[in-house]
Amino acid sequence: MPIPAPFADESLYTPEHWYIHDVVELDEERVVGICDTARLADEPFVRAQRAWPGQPKHVPGVVMVQITGTLGNIHAVCSLGLLMSEGWVGFGTNIHEARFRGMGAIGPQMRCELVVERVRRLRGSVFATYRFSFDQDGRPIYRARQSASWQPEPR
Question: Which residues does 28 contact at the CB level (< 8 Å), separation at least 6?
Answer without folding.
Answer: 79, 116
